[in-house]
Model the fold of this input.
Amino acid sequence: MKFQPKASHFIDGEYVESAAGQAIEVIYPATGETIARLHAATPAVVEEALQSSKTAQQKWAAKTGTERGRILRRAAEILRARNYELSELETHNTGKPIQETLVADASAGADALEYFGGLAASMTGEYIPLANGDFAITVPEPLGVCVGIGAWNYPIQIACLKAAPALACGNAMIFKPSETTPLSALKLAEALMEAGAPKGVFNVVQGYGDVGATLVADRRVAKVSLTGSVPTGRRVYAAAAEGMKHVTMELGGKSPLIVFDDADLENSVSGAIIGNFFSSGQVCSNGTRVFVQKRIKTAFLERLSSRLAFAKIGDPMDPQVNFGPIVSQRQLEIVKTYIARGIAEGARLVHGGHQLARPGFYLEPTVFADVTDEMTIAREEIFGPVMSVLEFETEEEVIARANATEFGLAAGVFTGDLARAHRVAKKFEAGTCYINTYNAAPVEAPFGGSKLSGVGRENSKLALHHYTEMKTIYVSVNNLHAAY
Ligand code: NDP
Done:
């Protein structure tokens, strides 16, 4: 098997296997074929990873920021040099079209390594003058061993978005990929070692939720960064709270995308397509509730349907294909259940809605119109290619409806009126907002959610604060007077 790794885990600079662990079958979503067989980590493997990370972290933190940054930037170059090979792997692991993985996965991961590599040496503290010549200094210190737990939609990108800031700050990371997409994190571990990272600074252990839970509960772990669903986030956050650990939670959403009648129609249709059907809709920040102002609703739906007819669905390794399968049979079934629910609750199916009669987990891009706020498809995260179009009349009304959700990951507005665009963006209850665009997530800008969609931010300088703890050192240059 071409994509079979040397072994399941990567610990202390080496591939490690233990056949005693539960089997993990890696499936190519385009065909349903098995492309690799791995094993979940046994308690002994998890222990090995923890011990290795604990030792490595101290050596790594003793390096200067410049040295750490150089290694991260070298790893970025290695990923870039291997971009095609890694994209091919990611396409086989996730089913996402090669035209997407070539630009959005390993390359975005390389951006993160380069960006945080560049910032590593800038992690300095402050001098704080106090009374009578006394002063305090602050020292940003690494947290120690951090655990990263990934979802299956952007496997190597998620691994890099967590590892890069963690390592830049002098932490070690143990990464547990989703068992659906376990392969590419191993390649990141290889790249980091080749770039000169000390062995053990980035370890990968495979497994199901129980392996993640064991790592989160271990007293040697100082921080947990999870990308996953809200229910998993709740469990992981609660477990981390037991040990008062730091957390970053990148969770799900049901984001609104508002199209006013003065918006450029082509751009707003593009925004709705990008915000619903990229990666077959399996993107956390997708604007799946598309609120369209009454006057342009018919025109919007017509243009949307005619453009969706040009989606090229097929073999994701074909460079012309821009719409691939769903990641797994399980996820396909979940999405199909939501489509059935939409129909049953009275939404009008205007495009797609069917599984394709071919091997693999293919589902058409699907659009429902006449969706109301109470319908299940307008309330719950589907995580598949299902767009709900809802009608609105006034700005005040649509803001209230857009915010009437427990999620708060992202939100977007399309309008030709700049003042209105800013007014609406300010009122959105969401961590990441867009004006006349959707779903951009460059490493330079903070990304993350409010409300149930998460805690903390990834990307940008802010991410560094989530991987350090500030030590304050007070210094007195005066004699000390005690009461007795
Ligand atoms: P899950 O929540 O099912 O799983 C996420 C990860 O957590 C997996 O690796 C999973 O392992 C692991 N896990 C499960 N239970 C536990 C536990 N008790 N303790 C520790 N780890 C555990 O999410 P999916 O993988 O299905 O990914 C889809 C979700 O991720 C969507 O909700 C999506 O919105 C969200 N997401 C958020 C992003 C963001 O940046 N905000 C970006 C991408 C996705 P296992 O797979 O073995 O169960």
